[in-house]
Amino acid sequence: MKTVVVGLSGGVDSSVAAYLLKEQGYNVIAMFMRNWHDESVTISDECPWIDDSQDALLVAEKLGIPFQVLDLSKEYKERIVDYMFDEYQAGRTPNPDVLCNREIKFDVFLKAAEKLGADFVATGHYCRKAEKDGRFQLLAGKDNNKDQSYFLCQLTQDQLAKALFPIGELQKSEVREIATKLDLVTADKKDSQGLCFVGKVKLPVFLQQKLQPKDGEIVEIPADLPQLKDYQNQISAEDYHILSTPFQFDKSEGKVVGKHNGAHYFTIGQRKGLHVGGTPLPLFVVGTDVESNIIYVGQGNQHPALNRKALFIRTIDVHWLDSMEEMEVGEEREYMVRIRYRQPLVKTRLYKEEDGIYLLFDELMSGVSPGQFAVWYQNDVLVGSGVIQS
């Protein structure tokens, strides 16, 4: 009998995952990961880890499987939280959930499970795993509205070999129906939001633990700026080097419309938190300068500085789930790409050069920010990903 350790989070998805594995004949062990101690930066009535661990324990008891709590707060701080601080301080927008899966769930947690004699680890992710010619593939979940393969875009072949995703073939409604029939305490529980196993974090408060507030100016950039008009006219494939270069603004090109408390707290595409009114269209962040501590904004979600035609990923930041799929220098390929979870896939041409990969979109992509992960698919198969450089 194969042994599998399930990351039981206290939510309905991992609860049903544990049940399905037991039904399939696995020896199932439940393990709750405790990744954060500081209650001052979570909204305690929405996702407290104590309540989650208690719910996970009740589910384990209901299913008749062993239950353990694993404290990974030290590793989580070193690998995820410190990374977040560094990225925001540099004016980049990190995705800690992607790193949490790569560094915590399928590394530290996996190694802890192997010490218990586990053959596999399992999670409640809405995605699927397949094997082809002795290689493992990560596939999108059957529920298009819940597909979470994006968050697993940095996994390796070794990690995929040890991973199980029991609910990947199911719809969310089917998962809740199973939980209801089993009378699990998590059956009607709301989906968790926020950082991986931390809770719904008050991000500004969280960041202010290390990144001090610093008053700065909000500068509005007009939509008819010459460099933006030039950009819109450069849409041929030969222009992908130019199109992937981020916009560089100067304070003199716009007008000061407000104040902020730190450029490192904001990201491109952000609308909330600016506290500036009186404009015909809502203001969106179109650029940040952490060195000068200036936020650049533009009116409306169609502002040309908010929409990009191409981006660049350095070679060092490119990851292929299967090394056999890697592109050669000079090669071009077409994939479907997204840069944010649940964002619609966009047809994109990838160009591999010595310094990295250039992505040229078939349509404008809104809110591209350095530090985000671009993820590319071939049909349902997640092929690769990379951290956006520009």
Properties at a glance:
nine-stranded antiparallel beta sheet, Elongation Factor Tu (Ef-tu), domain 3, 390 residues, 9 helices, alpha/beta, 3 domains, single chain, Rossmann fold
Describe the structure concisely for a colleague.
The chain has helices at residues 12-23, 49-63, 73-89, 96-115, 157-161, 172-181, 203-207, 226-233, 240-243, and strands at 3-7, 27-34, 67-71, 120-122, 127-132, 135-140, 163-164, 216-220, 255-260, 283-289, 294-299, 307-314, 318-320, 332-338, 346-353, 356-366, 373-378, 381-387. By secondary structure, it is an alpha/beta fold.
State the CATH architecture of the largest domain. Answer: 3-Layer(aba) Sandwich
Poorly predicted tracts of residues: none
Helix-strand topology string: EHEHEHHEEEHEHHEHHEEEEEEEEEE
Q: Compute the separation of the termini in Å.
A: 49 Å
For the sheet with most strands, the description reads: 9 strands, antiparallel
The amount of beta strand, in percent, is 25-35%
Helical content, roughly? 10-25%
Q: How many domain regions? A: 3
CATH class of the largest domain: Alpha Beta
CATH superfamily of the largest domain: HUPs
Count of alpha and pi helical runs: 9
Shape: globular
Number of strands: 18
Structural class by SSE content: alpha/beta
Mean pLDDT: 90
Oligomer: single chain
Instruction: Report the CATH topology name of the largest domain.
Output: Rossmann fold
Question: What's the structural blueprint in terms of helices and strands?
Answer:
Blueprint lengths: L2 E5 L4 H12 L3 E8 L14 H15 L3 E5 L1 H17 L6 H20 L4 E3 L4 E6 L2 E6 L16 H5 L1 E2 L7 H10 L21 H5 L8 E5 L5 H8 L6 H4 L11 E6 L22 E7 L4 E6 L7 E8 L3 E3 L11 E7 L7 E8 L2 E11 L6 E6 L2 E7 L3
Parallel strand pairs: 1-2, 1-4, 2-3, 4-7, 8-11
Antiparallel strand pairs: 5-6, 6-18, 8-9, 10-11, 12-16, 13-18, 14-15, 14-17, 15-16, 17-18
Helix pairs in contact: 1-2, 1-6, 3-4
